[in-house]
Here is the input.
Amino acid sequence: MTQTPVGRRERKKAATRQAIADEALRLFLERGYDEVSVRDIADAADVSTTTLFKHFTGKEALVFDQDQENEAQLIAAVRRRADGQGIVDALREYALGAYLPTALHPQAAEFNDLVESTPALRDYAERMWTRHTDSLSAAVADELGVEQDDIACVALARFVLQIPSLIRGQSDRRAAVERVFDVIAHGWRSPESPPPGREGSGSAPARSTTSA
Here is the structure.
C-alpha cells in the first residue's frame, strides 16, 4: 500500500515531463527554435518556468528529452547482446536503430531538419552523445575483463559516439553508418578498395559462456 502514492507521483512527473517536451517540439517545429522562449513553452504546457527547469536543464535539453534513456539503451546494447554476438556488431545494430530515426517517428524528418538547421542544437547533440564516452567505454571494458580506462575501449566508445555528427548531411545515412563500422571492424582502407566481407565483423570477442 505504501508504494502506490510513490508510483502515482512518478507517473505524474513523467507525464508532466512528456507534456513539456511535446509542447516544446511542437513550438520549435512551428516557429523555429530561436523564435521560442522557455516562457512560451511553459505557458503552452500550462506549467511554471520553475516546474519546467525541474525537469530540464535548459532549452536545448527540451529537444533531446530522451538523453538518459538513450544512454541506458546504449549500455544495454553491450551488456545484453545476444550470445555469440560481438561487441562491435552489437553497437552497429544499436547505431542503425538509434542514429537513423526517420522510420521510427512520423516527425523524425522534421526533427532532423530542426537540429541540422540550428547551430546550438547541432553542438548540443554532439556534446550529448560524446559525454557518454566514459559509461560506454566502461561497459565495453567490463565485458572484456580489462581496466575501465583501457585506451582501446575508450577509442571504440568515442568512435561510435561520434557517428551522429559524422553522418550529418550524408544523403544515405544507413550506408554511412555501415561504412564507419566497417572501418571500426576492419581498419581503414582506400575508398577504391572493395568493401570487406562482414563475416566476423564483431572484432571484439563475442559473448561466450566459456570466455570473456
